[in-house]
Amino acid sequence: MIAVLVVEDERLAAEAHQQYVRRVPGFTVAGVAHSGAEAIRFCERQPVDLVLLDFYLPDTHGLAVCRALRAAGRTVDVIAVTSARDLDVVRAAVSAGIVQYLLKPFTFDALRDKLERYARYRGLLAGSGEVNGQAEVDGMLATLRGTEHATLPKGMSGETLDAISSALAGAGEALSAAAAAESTGVSRVTARRYLEYLAEHGLAERRPHYGQVGRPEVRYEWVS
Q1: Which of 9, 103, 111, 141 is 20 to 30 A from 18 (CA-CA)?
Q2: 200 with 186: CB under 8 angstroms?
């Protein structure tokens, strides 16, 4: 479970954000802070994976909270949840290492999308070792930023790519195009096209499977 600290001075908004987080599978609310000082003290006492950080707090600016966490050596990730639209604030947020920026007011679906992207990003970073190439790094960062489908080839959809990727990553073994198609409900030809796309971008590996007489079947394994 990804432990989330909600930092929001408005009580009703804080309660709404908690309810939103609890509705997203894989996330749990570790606590709530209504000021910057309270947020910093909470992170000192208890491990937190992610902070949903309002910028306009009664005692300080959210960016100051983020910088204080970094200065203390806290590696917690931060998603800005704010009404701040000033470009200088956005630039400062990027410089401070804030991983995502969500403007108020927002819907549950908007927050869920940010959280699910963050969860996929953490999943890609799980474990140890090295990346296989630039495409894998680009894919990780694009997953977090929400731009991973911006340059898909014509005729390919981000939703189908997500479905194929999830099926492959969750299988724990190499899958054939037929198995991926059965798992996601697309045709075998479609599944193979997306699997080849993942292989070409370093996110999957092709593995020949010698079973029946004739040419070996190509199976695909997620690169973790």
Answers
A1: 141
A2: no
Query: Which residue type sits at 77?
Result: D
Gap between the Cα atoms of 143 and 203, Å rounded: 12
* Calpha distance 179→100 (Å, rounded): 35
CB-CB contact of 205 with 199 (8 Å):
yes
pLDDT of amino acid 148 = 46
Tell me which amino acid residue 178 is.
Answer: A
pLDDT band at 146, cuts 50/70/90? low
* Over residues 216-221, mean pLDDT: 90
Length of the chain (residues): 224
The pLDDT score that the predictor gives to residue 147 is 45
Q: What is the pTM of this model?
A: 0.64
Distance CA 90, CA 6 (A): 20
* CB 99 within 8 Å of CB 77: yes
Q: Report d(CA 104, CA 93) in Å as an integer.
A: 16
Which residues are within 8 A (CB) of 118 and not within 5 positions of it... i.e. 6 or more apart?
2, 50, 77, 79, 99, 100, 144
Lowest pLDDT segment from 34-48, 83-97, 144-158: 144-158
**How far is C-alpha 70 from the chain's CA centre?**
21
